[in-house]
Amino acid sequence: MTTGGFALTGLSVRPSQVWGAVRLVPLVRDQPIAGLRLDRRVYEAGDPSIVDVGDGTVYRSYIPHAFVATWSQGTEPSAAFGTQLQERPATPRGAKAQTGARAIRRMARRTAPGRLRFLPLHLAMEGYLALHFGGPTTVWEEWTDTAVRHGLSPRVEEAYCGAQVRGLADALRAFEIHPGQCGVALYVADALAGVFVVPHPADYRALHTTLLEDMYGEVLFHYTTYVAGVPDYSAAIDADCVASFADLRREAARQSLDWAHFHDSAMADGLLHEGTYTYEHIYRMGEFTLSRMLPSFRLNEENHIGELISGPGGELAYCKTFRLSPTQAKRGYLLSRLHEHSWDLLATAQALGTEPSQLTHRIEAAGFTGLLRQDVVDRLARTGRRDDAPPGDGRSR
Amino acid sequence: MERREWVACEDTLLFVNAAVTSTGQREFRDSEQAQHMSLAFLHEYMLGNYRELYAASLALDVNDHNAALIVRHLLVSSRDLAPAVRRREGALIARRLQVMAPQRVYRLFRELARLGVNNRRTRAIMREWIAQRPDPAFDAVKYRGAVKATVRHAHLSAQGETGPFLFAPLRRMKGFDTPLFESWRQAHYAASALYDLPYTVAEGFAARHRVPRPEFLRRITPNLTRVERLRLQGSAERLKVDEVRTDLGTMPLTRLASYVLALPREVRARRHDELHAAMTAAARRVAGDAVGRWGHVVAVLDDSFSSFGSTAKPQRPLAVALACHYLLKALAGSYASFWTSGAPDPLMVRPSGPTGLGDRLIDALELRPERLVVVSDGWDNAPPGLAAEVLRVWRARLDPAGSTSMVHLNPVYDADDFGVKRLGPGIPTVGVRDAEDVPTLVELARFAEGRSGFDELNRYLAARQEQFLAEGKAS
After folding, report:
1. A103: pLDDT confidence band, cut at 50, 70 and 90?
2. Which residues in chain A are contacts of B397 at CB distance < 8 A?
3. Which of A210, A190, A177 has the alpha carbon at shortest distance from A40?
4. How far apart are the two ends of chain A, measured CA to CA in Å?
5. Are A199 and A182 in contact (CB under 8 A)?
6. How many structural domains does chain A have?
7. What is the pLDDT of residue A97?
8. How confident is the model at residue A55 (pLDDT cuts 50, 70, 90)?
9. Is the CB of residue B170 less than 8 Å from the CB of residue B153?
């Protein structure tokens, strides 16, 4: 596990294309990543599947497809798109023979030498769901038996399917893919919804439409219903600077650079300028590493979780991020703070600059019910009322 | 110019642009419903506010879909019109129906029947149009259902055997003297009779008699129309029927461009010289006397992904751009063109990539052409708005004298904006559906620029009407 920042290494930004409230920013590679390709395996849509995490834990989720990463081993050259002999993909028709919910073994699983099947965004999501999943590490008297024995189970989070995000389908259809494009940054009402990067332009072309089947945070779903359209970042040339065609050409080129600068410094700021992501390495494929990242859960700021494959030189070969909603970020924040203080309620409350009674309210308001013993909560509420605040104030929080 | 006149001028151009481009089909960015709704509004608006200008647009290059809509709207009511205006409208309608494809006219007649439009004027127009058809028996066979509906709706008397042919049940038909009717009757029972019939009718009988497709194509070839022949090129080649093969150079320019783009790129590469020669010949035929008269022309052509159009009109915007390329080459003294993707060979273009018009415009303007033509759907997105900025700055700083005239031809109707999408203010934009109309559309562009007044537009429209009606009398 390591901590560090996140950067779109090896990718450059091209002018965005806007459709209603959706803005798509193309990410272009000069050179495709050698030795790694992505493909997709389609599962039956609409039917929630059960995923075996591997340590006895299982979870149930909507899974439209899996990605298959193929990497070249040793000296064998990486085949160009279309010339590769690929195993027949499991089509929905083939999957019909199974009855009931399908069980998928492990989220990242080696299917053949040099080939890994993983569920997009699920690595990231699972990382977030499993955050301090075990519950209290020290058995303080405030925590219930259930919390100590079973941890936070069952843990539930909600996300919206891209098809339900208004205008996203049209935006993806009308989007004009740039030559050499290997990724996209997706904005809804100019809030960053996610970044999607693949190793090769041909992979991107094939996987462009899967953005519609991805999951998106609740905030973005609501933003599309509030915002009718976002403005284009229009070019503006100062006529006084132009005296010849060379000047005009230079000014025109500057427009793209200005946009790229603006994008990285302002629009993707929430993702790119948090320096304290926690990376967990999941799988090593030759010289590539599949890992997931968790943010430091900053309150009132953007928080993105994600999964990525990085190359030997640190270049980003694959990446998918998910923007947490404020309540989700709050949950992560509370769990992290509790964990930092070994789940000691008093110490955590002190560190957060609040009262223990208020902290219990925050924990319950965040959706973690049944963790704290009711008598403790009541006692803390009474003390809080008597000592510090006028009657009734403790509960109205 | 008075404000009222200025508005009228704008509205007319807006409508003409819409009526030239939109066919009520799905576009890259609009659904079919959006196109229909937007167009329906424009038609009602024009009919209510500028009925004479609305009728006059029949003399312009509006497409058949819109011409049929205009005729329908005009025929629904003419109660409050002065006799002279009514006569003029009638003449324009009759003339327009003459140049329209017959199947479209019959569709219009059926639509009028469905709406219950059966005033004296409508019946007279139907009667006169049917009377001037060169071969009534052929029409009766090829468009049997439509002819039947029209005859019934307009209370026409069917001449000779047409009456029994249209209305008698098949079992009571004991034989006709008209050869085409007789073939049609026999084709119900014998496969040998169907080769005298028009292709579309024969195709149904061939399916009924289970005639093998290659044999059917081989024998029906003499009855194919020009466009049917073009449409069958691909399938005839697959079935190895050589009879259908034709000289592509005789085909209409834009249709030919669509045909070329529908071919796989390997085939285009293999038949490159043949296709190039055919496109050049078709373009020269359209250019006519004006070959080489346009001076130094530079074109910027859009082959971005959006030029794919939609499945309803596949690659139409790209086909228009390709046809324009060849037409402009024929019209120009010296010519250069730039595709947005940077494709070097126009015959190998395919719709892909973003629309980076700005950079291509700089390339084009640097050649200092007399005339700059842009063919694009107007969605300039890499970066957005650069084309407008380049043109603005270039006009202000590098070409203040206006030595280059420019026009933007847009093949796509934007339903939300009720018009064709403009590149920017001050850039004359006109809609285009067929590259064949480009020479006349370029004239219209000077009104779009806003430099010419309403009187001039009226004079222009009057001249076009006179010319349009005169052509009818001459033919």
Report:
1. low
2. 239, 242-243
3. A210
4. 37
5. yes
6. 2
7. 33
8. low
9. no
In this structure, is residue A335 part of a structural domain?
no
Domain hosting residue A227, numbered range: 2-326
**Closest CB to B28 among A174, A243, A251:** A174
The alpha carbon of residue B339 is apart from the nearest alpha carbon of chain A, in Å, by 15
Contacts of B390 in chain A (CB under 8 A): 237, 248, 252
Residue A104 and residue A56 in one domain: yes
Q: What is the pTM of this model?
A: 0.89
pLDDT of A88 higher than 80: no
Domain B272-454 part of CATH 3.30.230: no
Greater pLDDT, A76 or B131: B131
Same domain, A247 and A348: no
Please judge whether B393 and A237 are an interchain contact, meaning their C-beta atoms are less than 8 angstroms apart.
yes
What is the nearest CA distance from B396 to chain A, expressed in angstroms? Answer: 7
CA distance A101 to chain B (A): 37
CB–CB of A219/A325 below 8 Å? yes
- Tell me: do A252 and A355 sit in the same domain: no
Grade residue B1 by pLDDT with cuts at 50, 70 and 90. low
Q: Do B389 and A236 touch (CB under 8 A)?
A: yes
| Option in A233, A242, A259 nearest B397 (CB) | A242
Distance from CA of A164 to the nearest CA of B (A): 19
Structure tokens that stand for A250 in this block: 């230079």
Angstroms from A178 CA to nearest CA on chain B? 5
Q: Is the same domain home to A219 and A129? A: yes
Task: Name the token pair of B152.
Answer: 């019934």
Contact across the interface for B393 and A244, Cβ inside 8 Å? no
CB contact under 8 A, B397 and A239: yes
| Calpha distance A99→B439 (Å, rounded) | 66
Contacting residues of B for A252, CB less than 8 Å apart: 358-359, 362, 386, 389-390
Cβ neighbour number for residue B467 with a 10 Å cutoff: 11
On whether residue A331 sits in a domain, the answer given is no
Residues of chain A with C-beta less than 8 angstroms from the C-beta of B388 = 235
Q: Is the Cβ pair B306, A252 closer than 8 Å?
A: no
| Highest-scoring range by mean pLDDT, A217-231, A295-309, B106-120 | B106-120
Distance from C-alpha of B3 to C-alpha of B54, rounded to nearest angstrom: 20
Rounded to a whole number, what is the distance in Å from the CA of B248 to chain A's nearest CA?
A: 33
Q: Of all helices (H) and strands (E), which one includes residue A148?
A: helix A145-150
Shared-domain flag, residues A244 and A355? no
Is the pLDDT reported for residue B28 higher than 50?
yes
Domain check: are A231 and A359 in the same one? no
Nearest CB partner across the interface for A176, out of B354, B383, B396: B354
| Residue A227 pLDDT grade (very low, low, confident, very high; cuts 50, 70, 90) | confident
A204 in any annotated domain: yes
- Give the C-alpha separation, B201 to B137, whole Å: 13
CA distance B365 to B409: 17
The whole-angstrom separation of Cα A183 and Cα A11 is 8
Q: Are the CB atoms for B362 and B390 separated by under 8 Å?
A: yes
Residues A92 and A144 in one domain: yes
Of A292, A326, A360, which residue constitutes the final position of a domain? Answer: A326
Phi first, then psi, for residue B393 (nearest 5°) are: -65, -40
If interface means Cβ-Cβ distance under 8 Å, which residues of chain A face chain B? 14-18, 26, 174, 176-179, 232-237, 239, 242-245, 248-249, 251-252, 255-256, 259
Domain boundaries, chain B: 3-188+198-205, 272-454
Do A292 and A370 fall within a single domain? no
Which residue from B29, B353, B389 is facing A235, i.e. has the nearest CB?
A: B389
Q: Do B386 and A255 touch (CB under 8 A)?
A: yes
A148 found inside a domain: yes
Given the structure tokens 């008297």, which residue do they identify?
A141
- Whose tokens are 């609040």? That residue is A354
* Chain B residue whose CA is closest to A181: B353
